[in-house]
Amino acid sequence: MELKLIDKNGKAAKKGVDVSEVTFGREFNEALVHQVVVAYMANARTATRAQKGRDNVAHTTHKPYAQKGTGNARAGMSSSPIWRGGGRAFPNSPNENFSHKVNRKAYRAGMQTILSELVRQERITVVEEFKIDTPKTKQFVEKIKGLGYADGVLLLTDGFDENLYLSSRNLTNVMVVEAQFADPVSLVRFPKVLATAGAVKKLEELLA
Predict the structure, then answer these.
(1) Could you give the C-alpha distances from 38 to 27, 102, 123, 124, 143, in angstroms and in order?
(2) What is the pLDDT, as a whole number, of residue 94?
(3) pTM score of the predicted model
(4) How far apart are alpha carbons 154 and 175 in whole angstroms?
């Protein structure tokens, strides 16, 4: 199968880029994509929140009032979870583990499914190369607008390019990522994906 190929001016080439059916022609599996995306987001979480239990709050252990005769519900300690200012019954801990396990084979299949769906929706395009002379954001924006990606794009490159990194890091609707670090969340989130020919080949090697 072929992917659409454009030149540096945004014009479509006569012949596209031949790619593997395994990586870019897989049937859509919504459950697998959901599993991969959720696992990636969960594994990116850090346990930084902490709450106090009833043994951590600074409260006296004396009984607040008499057991009988007040008309109130029975209460033994003001640190009870049902009291305002009391400790939590099941407090969040900094030691919480949010990670999800996804088998390597399933992750690869999920990435292949996402890439294949991008092809079916015509959201992915290939360019021979994408480079700028100087690390200038203005120059970078003019280049992506010239290619027709004014609304935002995920740019996949075959290697690290400092000029591209420096000129795009302040743009909220653009992300430049090396093909080996492409993640399912970014592939799903961005409306369009632009990949260099070298990045496509690297994706095929990594997900084969």
Answers:
(1) 20, 10, 22, 22, 33
(2) 87
(3) 0.81
(4) 5
